[in-house]
Write a structure and sequence with these properties.
alpha/beta; twelve-stranded mixed sheet; six-stranded mixed sheet; 10 helices
């Protein structure tokens, strides 16, 4: 049986869906098909997310995407799509005003057409879809992805639709070998017939803290049912998962016995060992952290983050960069910055998840903080290296010691070694969003 996993071209959503959407042939000799329902109230991002995912799947299939407009006009949809960077260079065709410019184009096009359902009391869904499909083909559009915008009240397609209508749409898509994306108006998100018929259900919500996405159903693969942050900007929609969703760093290194060195001080430990550095002076602490990490380390400066920065988005962006660069060592500091964030607990948690994923992948981690106490509790066993903050009673001895292994001025820092992170998931409090 032919099957594949298709990316939504968004690293966050792919992580939530365990890789992407599952498409497979449901009839002998047929082509791969699938179905997705995106539900939400007005303004939650259904049309934008649906069109973006539709185009991503169409590209993977080497075909075009057809957006069937029910309540919105094709010209309105065209105006909306042209506002996003991801659609730049994409041929967008109003089927009622123009033909495709090239039948042999290399990129996937977007066709926009009205879906004529006839009577709203008894809509002929299959007939309307077949007619729109023929019309698109006659204009040079070669779709294998269909987006229906939207299943709206007043057209016989809302939550009152019966199960037979919902099943008929999904079976039609399976017969012709298409991936169908249904956008449903749903204010209270109570289950409807459409949710039972499709392979995957994504629910969207919006509140004062932003837009949120949740995968309510994933028939053929595991998924994360938590709420995930959905951002829509000029680049298009992007999903920043809950930190506990991330399964892996995205690359790995073999864990072996490694050598640590700080001036004349040397010790051995696992190559994925975590070292925490803290003390009272910013330049001293950051300097020791850099020396421990060595050349080529990936340096994450938390102090450069804006106060309102979304921790989930920060973690998503960092993991994307790490997967591209694949460093052997990661440096994270100043951990004190987690206290000044609007979402202090969220940023704290994101940093801990990052450190855990890195150590599981065999990557060395150095964290640093300007303070006399650790912001992030060291829940694992600790062993100390003889680097201590100076005190009045032994200032001269401390100065001499620091100069001996740094080759520079006196430092006021404490270095602690934290045993390797061994658990694949951090405990999640029921109170965490």
């Amino acid at each position: 049986m032919s099957s594949r996993i298709v990316s939504g071209e968004d690293v966050g959503l792919d992580e939530v869906l365990s890789g992407g959407f599952r498409l497979f042939a449901r009839y002998p000799g047929g082509e791969e098909s699938g179905s997705l329902l995106i539900r939400g109230a007005p303004g939650t991002g259904k049309s934008i997310l649906g069109s973006r995912l539709g185009h991503a799947v169409a590209k993977a299939l080497g075909a075009d995407v057809l957006i069937a407009c029910v309540e919105i006009l094709p010209t309105e949809m065209l105006e909306q799509l042209q506002r996003f960077d991801w659609a730049a260079g994409v041929e967008i065709i109003d089927l009622h005003q123009q033909r495709s410019s090239s039948a042999n184009r290399a990129t996937s096009a977007i066709g926009l057409g009205l879906l004529d359902l006839g009577s709203t009391n008894d809509p002929d869904f299959s007939g309307a879809l077949s007619a729109l499909r023929r019309h698109a083909a006659g204009l040079g559009i070669r779709p294998r992805v269909l987006v229906i915008d939207s299943l709206a009240r007043g057209y016989g397609l809302d939550s009152a639709s019966d199960r037979l209508t919902a099943d008929a749409v999904c079976k039609w898509a399976a017969e012709v070998g298409w991936f169908v994306i249904l956008l449903e108006e749903a204010v209270d998100l109570r289950p409807t017939a459409w949710g039972f018929a499709v392979d995957t259900v994504i629910e969207l919500q919006a509140d004062d803290s932003g837009r949120w996405l949740r995968v309510a159903k994933s028939r053929f693969a595991s998924s994360d049912p938590r709420r995930h942050y959905l951002e829509i900007d000029k680049g298009g929609p992007s999903v920043s998962p809950d930190p506990a969703t991330w399964r892996a760093l995205g690359y790995s290194r073999e864990v072996s016995t490694g050598n640590w060195q700080l001036g004349t001080i040397r010790w051995e430990g696992p190559s994925n060992e975590r070292v925490a550095v803290y003390g009272a002076d910013l330049s001293d602490v950051s300097d020791i952290a850099s020396k421990l990490a060595g050349k080529g380390a990936f340096d994450l400066r938390l102090g450069d983050l804006r106060r309102e920065w979304q921790p989930r988005r920060w973690l998503r962006d960092v993991l994307t960069e790490l997967r591209a660069e694949q460093p052997a060592t990661i440096v994270v500091g100043d951990l004190r910055a987690t206290e000044t964030s609007v979402d202090s607990a969220g940023l704290h948690r994101a940093v801990e998840v990052l450190c855990g994923l890195a150590q599981l992948a065999g990557v060395r981690v150095v964290t640093w903080e300007v303070t006399h106490t650790m912001t992030i509790p060291l829940a694992h066993s600790v062993r100390e290296v003889p680097i201590e903050p100076p005190s009045a009673a032994r200032a001269s001895t401390t100065v001499s010691t620091f100069r001996s292994f740094t080759g520079g001025p006196a430092h006021s820092a404490m270095v602690r070694l934290v045993d390797s992170f061994r658990t694949p998931r951090l405990p999640v409090s029921k109170n965490e969003v």
